[in-house]
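I wish you would study the pair of lines that follows with an eye to the fold:

===
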Amino acid sequence: MTAFPLFRSATFRLALLYMLLFGGSAAILMGFLYWATAGVLSDQIDETIQADIKGLAEQYEQRGTPGIAAVISERVRRDPGGRTVYLLTDPLRRPLVGNLSAWPTLEPDSDGWLTFDLLDRDTADGTTHIARARPFILQGGLNLLVGREVREIERIRAMVLNAVIWGTGFTLALGFAGGIAMSRSTARRIDSINQTSRQIVDGNLDRRIPTRGTNDEFDQLAANLNAMLDRNQTLLEGLRHVSDNIAHDLRTPLARLRGKLDEIDRPNLTDDDRNRIVESAIAEADGLLAIFNALLRIAQIEAGGRRENFAPMDLAEVVSDVAELYEPVALVKGITLAVRCEPTTGLTGDRDLLFQAVANLADNAIKYTPEGSNVVLHAAGTVVTVSDTGHGIPEDAKEDVFRRFHRLEESRNTPGSGLGLSLVRAVATLHGGKVQLEDNRPGLKAILSIG
C-alpha cells in the first residue's frame, strides 16, 4: 500500500485522532507538572525570604542598627558567592551594609516583589542571574532588601519545560509511527479480504479469506465470511445439481406426457381409449406440478418465509396424527407400525410443516421396508425418531439422499420425486434443528430434532 492511500485510510485517521488526543492530554499533564513544580519552588523561595526578613526585623528591634548590620555582615561573609541578597540603606537608600553596591532601580510589582539581574560573582565574564527580593522599611526609615538568587529555579524550570517539549514531541512522533504501523497492519488484513473478494467475483469460488490463527476480530470476521462463502458455494452447487436433476428426472415424464398427447390424434382410437389417455396425461401433468410445487415449497422454507405460522404445539400430537394417517398403508403392506409418544409442552413451530416432515420420514420407512418388517415412530421432547428394520442406506449415501432429486439406484423404479428428505432438512433448519440418518441394525433410523 502506498503512502497516499494509507494516509486516506479510515484506520490511519482514527489512529491520528487518537494520537492528537493522547498527545494533547500528555501536553496538558506535563504543563500542569511544569506549573506546579515552578510554583512550588517559587513559593518556597518567597517563604524563605519572608522568614529571613522577619528574623532580621526582630534583630533590629532587639539590637538596633549595629545589631542588624552585624548579622547581615556575618551572613554575607558566609555566602561569598552572593546567592543570598542583603542590603541595608539609610532613608536616602545609601548603602550601609550588604552585598549589593546600590539599591535596584526597578519598581516593585503589585505584590511588592523585585526581580532584577544579579552579577555572578563566581565568574569574571559579567554573567548575570535573576534575583528575587522583597524590600522592607524598618523603624527609623532604614530600608532593608532581602532576596535570593533564583538560578536553580530557572534551571529546573528550563529542565521541566524541555521535558514537556521533548515528551510531547516524542509522544506525537511515537503516536504517528504507531498509527502508520497499525494502519499498515489493518490495511494488509483488509486488502487480503478485498483481493479474495475480487477473485471470487472473477469466478474463483473456491477462494477463502486467510486467517492468522489469532482469533482476533479480523479472524472472526474472516471465519464468518468464509462460512457464508461455503454456504453460498453449497447453494450454488445444489442449484447446479438441481438443474441437472430437473433436466434428467423431468425429461422422462415430459416425454411420456408428449407421447400420450400424440396418441390422442390417432384416428382408430375409441372414446374409452381416448379418455384413458387423457386421464393418464393429466396424471403425468399433476405429477410434474407436484414436483414444481415441492421445489417452490422447499425454496420458501429455506428462505425463512414460513415463520409467521409458528405457534405453540405438541410434537407428540403431530407424530400421533402421522401414525394414524399411515397406519392403513402399513397394514396393507403387512408392516407393523408402532407409536411411542411422550407429551411435550413449550414448543413453538409450524405444525403443518412438521407434520409434512414426519410424514415424509414415515412414508419413506414404509415404502422402502419389505413386508413383515417393523416401523416405529417415537417422539420425546424435541426429537422425533422414525426407525425401520428394512435394508437401510449405505454409509456413503446418507448425506447424498438429502440432495434434491437424488435417488438411490434401487429406488429408481419406486414412485417418488427425490424431494422428500430435502423438504425434511429444510423444515428442520427452519426450526433451528437438524435431521440425520443412523444405522438401526438392521434398517435405518431417521432422527429429526427441532429447536
